[in-house]
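Thread: Modeling a multi-component assembly for a lab meeting

Hi all, long-time lurker, first post. My supervisor asked me to bring a structural picture of a complex we are working on to next week's group meeting, and I have zero experience with this. I have the sequence lines for every component (463 residues in total). Could someone generate the structure of the whole assembly? Inputs are pasted exactly as I received them:
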Amino acid sequence: MKIFFEQSGGVAGIANNISIDSNSLDHQEASELQHLVDNSNFFDLPSESTAQLRGADYLEYKITIETNDNKKHSIKTTDLTIPPNVAPLIRYLRRKAVREER
Amino acid sequence: MNPSSSYCFIIPPDLLYQIIKEGTSEQKDKAIRTLELSESLRTQRSILSKLGGSLLRVAGHQQKRRIVYDAKHSDYVFSLPGEPKRYEDTQDTGDKDVNRCFNNTGLVYDFYKEVFMRNSIDDNGMAMHSSVHFGVDFDNAIWTGNQMVYGDGSDLFLKKGSVASNLTVTAHELTHGVTDNEANLVYRGQPGAMNEHMSDVFAIMCDQWFNKHTVAESSWLIGKDMLVEGQALRSIKEPGTAYPSDKQISHIEDYHVGMRIHYSSGIPNRAFYLTCNEIGNNSYSWEKAGKVWYIALKDRLREYSRFQDAADLLFDIAGSVFGKDSKEQNAVYKGWEAVGIIPREEGPNLVKVIGEKRIQD
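Re: Modeling a multi-component assembly
Sure thing. I ran the full set together rather than chain by chain. Output:
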């Protein structure tokens, strides 16, 4: 499974990107990531969850996941519109992106 | 005292609505305070929409009203605001983030009240709701359209405990609320950059006002000492120099369509700094430039105002307030001229400012 994650905006206005190939992760982390993806029902999510009328400094996210059997799906969301079951996956990816950036 | 012990949160919204609408003035006041402390902002919105806001405006408060909540690490905005932890008349809690956020929110209120005679976010005594401990290691602060929200920081990007305790961050977020209530600049394109710009310049003016710093004495930094690597989130004086990979720009030549608004806001930010410096580096920013910018935000800028519109309006306002060809008006001209946007002597084209939805370029 491959994951492409883009994060931008926020009060800092800094953009971060990260690509993850679960085959390159150790078994425990790969299993944790698979669990987060499964729990998010990622492939059933609408591709855009960004509709909002107000607010500022929210982070914007784009996630694309490609499975080993070539199933591919992308979603866009923000801190203000994030579907609750995707929050743990985004939390994991956000930390991973910050670590990579450093 | 436990804040939640003084107010009842189990009164059904319909009953609150009836009390606010038909109760005695004492009952109304208690119901309104209960509504302000409601754990559900959706409940507040539901009642406010029924009332049309009119009764709350009539009851408009003249004192600051802060409420700080603990989001308890939820990263789902619909669970906000969280558990109320501190509001007026309560003492320090054991939570540093709650206390610092509470105190800083009060300073921002005092700044707007004393300098611009503005009574809170809506200029009508609106209660200021803030939630701390949002998400897990969340490196951000947000204005949701209803309230301020602060993460804890991850110690990877932002230092832990830095987000909710930084005065410029609180002033930046609260000013997004002021902008929502005034110019209502859309949050993309050049109007979005102007929206960010207003939050940055009122945040730095608040910091300078609190510290009694002149133009020369100020760091001109937003979010100073918050980053694990870098000196701040942004430099208003020298955009693009706050941290190693800072991409903020400071001249219109470097602008392109689709640029992120936190990058392009460096253009008006630099114009503001240069204006203040031109007025006098031993002067206070909020006294003259601040006055001009506040009038623009409150009365002249519109949803789709762009950089040129802002330069024209600010030049026009400076002429009205301080006189044609005054030092202050010339300072506004020089500030914008230096970032490549020449204020038009004939003044703003109001038809363009109000009538067109030009946000792509």
